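Action item from last week, closing it out:
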Amino acid sequence: MRQYELMCVFQPDLDETALNGMIEKIKGWVAERGGSIEKVDVWGRRKLAYPIRKKNEGQYVLFNLKLAPSATAELERNLRYQEAVMRHLLTLNG
């Protein structure tokens, strides 16, 4: 298991229930692969550096997680196909 940071930028028009649903879905994907979420830090709505899908804002969420290196590709594939996720970045921490 390695320590990772996952930053997700979600659609700005998601309500709190939908955002929490996406966070729970990501937690479920990590748990399915034998990983664990150490911390979830919701940064809230922030202005983007450049427009994405004609949106100027996004809702930022930072996940600190432990996951096997072989499971990262599957997690990123799942994130790529979610309409609510505008951008994501998974980096090795430490």
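Closing note: The beta strands are 2-10, 36-52, 55-67, 85-92.
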